[in-house]
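batch_manifest entry 22 of 60
target: 8-oxo-dGTP diphosphatase
source organism: Sphingomonas adhaesiva
requested by: lab member K.T.
priority: normal
notes from requester: please return tokens only, no post-processing; we will run our own comparison against the previous entry in this batch. if the run fails, retry once and flag.
--- input ---
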Amino acid sequence: MGSPILVVAAALIDAQGRCLMQQRPVGKQHGGLWEFPGGKVEPGEAPADALARELAEELGIVVAPAALAPLSFAVDPNRPGAALVMLLYRCTRWSGVPRALAADALRWDVPRALADLPMPPVDVPLLATLQQALAAPAPLA
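--- output ---
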């Protein structure tokens, strides 16, 4: 088995507590399934920088790497060739309006409603972690 493939994804969360998911284009691997926006980390690239780049490419928004807070990760060991490791970041601040530049559709909804969507296996545990994080009471300041 080869070196793991590192992928970054964003849980973009709006002021109403809704998260953005995108639908993979039909004809691609996992076509038609819903996923967190993001993509592969290029050699020599920091994960947060890669995610900021991917969000600009896929959604047309600007996100400062400092606005990305690590939330969780998941591993898809069943991927042929090499395991896929996905890092999920939480993001509540960005500039611009997300558009489906690399997806067939976008959907904003609360995590429990998004759990009913068909997703690639690696996204499922990440959505469950996000749902728990958003349901937890805010820490006292």
